[in-house]
Hints:
heterodimer; A: alpha/beta; FAD/NAD(P)-binding domain; D-Amino Acid Oxidase, Chain A, domain 2; 2 domains; eight-stranded mixed sheet; 9 helices; 26% strand; globular; B: alpha+beta; Ubiquitin-like (UB roll); seven-stranded mixed sheet; 22 helices; 29% strand; elongated; EC 1.5.3.24 (chain B); Sarcosine oxidase subunit alpha (chain B)
Amino acid sequence: MAPRTPGADLPEHPDWLWHSPDPKPSYDVVIVGGGGHGLATAYYLAVNHGITNVAVLERGWLAGGNMARNTTIIRSNYLWDESAGLYEHALKLWEGLEDELDYPLLFSQRGVLNLAHSLQEVRDGVRRVNANRLNGIDAEWLDPHQVAEICPILNTSPDLRYPVLGATWQPRAGIAKHDHVAWAFARALDRMGVDLIQGCEVTGFERVGDRVVGVNTSRGPIRAGKVALAAAGHTSVLADTLGLRLPIQSHPLQALVSELLEPVHPTVVMSNSVHVYVSQAHKGELVLGAGIDAHNSYSQRGAFHTIEREMTAAVELFPMFARAHVLRTWGGVVDVTPDASAIMGLTPFEGLYVNCGWGTGGFKSTPGVGWCYAHTIACDEPHPLNAPFSLERFTTGALVDEHGAAGVAH
Amino acid sequence: MSNEFRLADRGRIDRDRPIRFRFDGGDYEGYQGDTLASALLANGIHQVATSIKHGRPRGIMAAGAEEPNALVQIERPFPEPMLTATTVELREGLQASGLPGRGQLSTGDDPARYDTMHAHCDVLVVGAGPAGLAAALSAARSGARVIVAEADTEFGGSLLGSGETLDRAPGTEWVRRATAELAACPEVRLLPRTTVFGHYDDNYLVALEHRGEQAHSRQRVWRMRAREVVLATGSHERPLVFAGNDRPGTMLAGSARTYLNRYAVRPGNRAVVFTTNDSAYAAAIDLADAGVEIAAIVDAREVVSTHWASLCIERGITIHADTAVVSTSGTDRVSSAHLCSLRSDGSRTPSVRQVVGCDLLLVSGGWNPAVHLHSQARGSLRFSEDIGAFVPEQDVRSVRSAGAAAGLFATSESLRSGAEAGRDAARAAGFDAEPGRLPRAEKAPVLASRSVWLLPSPADSDGSTRFVDLARDVTVADIRKATRAGMDSVEHVKRYTTLGTAHDQGKTSGTLSTGVIAEMLGRDVAELGTTTFRAPYTPVTFAALAGRDRGDLYDPVRVTAMHDWHVEHGAPFENVGQWKRPWYYPRPGEDMETAVLRECRAARESVGIQDVSTLGKIDVQGPDAAEFLDLVYTNMMSTLKVGRIRYGVMCTADGMVFDDGTVTRTDEQRYLISTTSGNAAGVLAHLEDWLQTEWPHLRVYLTSVTEQWATIALVGPDSRQVLSRVASGIEVGNDSFPFMSFRDGLVAGRRARVCRISFSGELAFEINVPWWYGREVWEALHEAGQPFGITPYGTETMHVLRAEKGFPIVGQDTDGTITPDDLGMSWAVSKKKTDFLGKRSFSRADTARTDRKQLVGLLPADENLVLPEGSQLVDTAELPEPPVPMLGHVTSSYRSAALDRGFALAVVKAGRDRIGETIYSPVGDRLAAVTITEPVFYDKEGARRDG
């Protein structure tokens, strides 16, 4: 695994990636939020449903929210059928995305290890592996010796405070370059005539009765046949203006990188109880994340003790990281639902669709969300894969509780 | 060749303390007080590294943390990657090598120790240059508690390198006196070698102190909470963008001055100075006076300062006004600078007017205030046209920027603003502070600088050798590629080109790149702004942040009062939360299964003893304790009689089982509740959460008493006899001491509370004594049990015994999606109470379904089979193509001594309606047939609990 030179993977661009048009007065579909989900949704609206009179509205710079801030891990080894279905659909799309978008996404299927450090985590891991296999998802249960073979720099000594007792292993999982994914979708959309409008903040909705017919923005009103929300934690702020309360809470989630290092870490390692997740990006920097900050906040920054705790876990599991340096820390905002699964589907308002609550699953789900959300918007009914993720489940109680299987203990 | 470029007459190095070091395989000598960079320059080494993308030779550009080029790998005393030669203190035996932008981690374990310090203060002064020292003096003289943190090895900041005078004496003399005065103040703490790298909410700042490889702790992280903060962090000089601006020998002018005055290093023999402002003149004059030939001063401004011009004339230095260096020549080092007039003469392509030979090219494109901490503290920035840089727009609450960090570059201004900031900070913290007298600095009139971003470039039309970010090899051409692709935000260009993302996080390139992008797009620098400043200011080792919280201290190890006994008796331990619990007690030659079967038989047939001290215990007191417990448990606790015990289930608001345990009423207004071992803290937090946020009117007080009690379970038909031998004051008979009640008395002579509860189905007593007597009472019971063959057992046997009785373990047989009814525990859910946590959810459509996953028993058709826990369950004897519908999974599975076979607990869809049916479990490559049963396998009628 030779490290890649920074910037060397980018193609020459004699042409534009995207333009920055002014908003038109009206669109068939307005997507609120120009992150990965908004862009992917617009893409599949165009490609799968032929709908291109679409605007993607972004209040800041394109894909500058969680799409620019995540740790780029992609996997589909979720416990429940509902989650596994959606994330596996996403993973299958990831596997063809680089060709489809004709852009280097640096999608690297280097596998993901989810470590178990207690007998209960072993039970949970075995359970998830068995469920994954029956759902057609690649998964193996590894003993500590097998774990060490895959990731030799991992401390699998039994003397560890919480020794590695085993791990789940999904070989098809991996990482991709988040920014490139956004730019690839943006380039494709620009070519198909979809308007990507930056610096355009949605402040409210135009309604006729219970039908949403447009949005008010910092750049004036825009009429829309349909409005699709894809604004992560801020989705609830927008829905609030309609009196629609969404059950999501937003927290800071921090991540960090080291300086560039010669390749040492061949895969992705995640641990919930020695809490950290680590990969080494193509250029050579270690990319790490861990727990969310407990307080609610929309600020893209967290508290430092969260980083310090993460570092204790990092050097516990990877003693050789002791003299690696934290180069940069940053924060994103994770929008978390009561059952740690997303919300995607219809709303009580005609012509208004909601997609939020992805917590830590947003990046890996990107193409799957785009595919299903586009279907939901175009057909005015959920795709079978996102039907379980309706808003109604919080009334019926048909929850998809992924607290146990999420990378982060919520 | 040794110290050929060292001057004899100046500097702050200690010539009596030579230091030998090795770089790139060559042996050299420097002095105490050198950095690796200054020692290399003294030995004539300019090229230190190669660049990451193009492999171009790179030299030493700066004299501090802003260095973009001189990356080194430390090899000895212990490998550390990616440090800048400019920040590595020279130490005896240091071995290092230059890096091409990417470092190596050591495969050996880091032997060093790292510590964490905590400090509070009234005024934290970051930076001990003229502004910081003046601030610290103002604050310290008022009696305030002051911390001064300075990244450098010694205080003084710019005064160390500039050679300026204060009160007509060397500025360093004032620094010495100021430092001595501060050191003499009892409330002042001075932290040299300490970089404040993060500024968080409410003036929480974190700093890294370097103490050296030999120190007891190599590095310490300071966690500081300051009432008021003065940021006197100085500024970074900005390079200029011309073709070949990366050749070794190219150096920031101020840094060259520092090498000269502080380290007594002559950085070259013949220099060209290219500047857009007055500051580089001072460097030129100092270098000239030290014997460096100044071949030319090239000033981008049309008008140059008469003050500096006259000093140059005195020394015969030529000044080229309105001129730029547009390219360089040289192989491993710059050999000439190519000059071009900036004056518009009508021709579109400017041409090189003059080639000036040199081995040193000093550049100064202006100075960027180090606004990093101000910005981290959420301070806003504005672009100052006067200095061509971003400065703090206004101070954040309780944070003041002073000196160069505030854009005030003259030493006199630094001193004044620092003194005022220190005074204001101390006053804000409640002290009566005065600025005091300030030393008089040299005065020189300062002409406005000229902001220069893109220079004409006759030699490099595509911009591919004009470097904007040297650390990442990002050129004008790279940035143009990004803007031509449609990117018009600094964030996008940064991500596209990797600009500003290297080890230096764009300290020299940040503002410069904004200027270049702005010029390309025809937009305002101010409008484009900067990318976000994030912690850490300079890179920090992982190990320093981890501190001591590693190994055994990664998480506290909690052990019970009887722990040593368990160790002495050979028990392996299971981690349960932070606790170490005995897992089983193998006898010589026994494997785990054999030991557990023996322990199970003892508990069922004679008597077993288990340490259950780890179960969480919460004391619940207050007039409303009963009402509170009725709200948090699904069953009724207010009707419990004093002296009695009830099993209880807690749910979260969604109706899912959260924890379980016993509730003991010790008084009308007092209960003792128990929790699962791993969830004790979680339960207390949950209860406090509801008490404090939803029911603050309830008069209830919660106290964790887990560690006040050592608790011993005495289990089995002979347990009563064993207890009777050591208990006094307790009638142990069934009628006088019924099930689910407690008695206080003496056990082995110690005050004890004995509860009749059972997690095994057997007659059992739970003996609680003060923690201190845990081992003593345990040993007494063990001794008293000898005639009955008393057998200690661990968590594994406990699990088997309870599973045989169908008792679920929360967190093992439940996973946050299981209701009490799913567990067959509707009996524990009150029908009478008007409200309790989870009640409303039970009526939700999905929660009320009758075909939910329910706890059942499983008996494998193969009696010898112990199903792996976590196995899934399916309906068919052969697997169809995925996705295969799953019925549920095996939650607990063991071999039973009592049943003489394998058995399991599982959750299965509509399981209770399917009892007697056969379903299948994929085990390895085969499907194992299993029969669904009631979850209770042993003593279904409950006959054994009374003995």
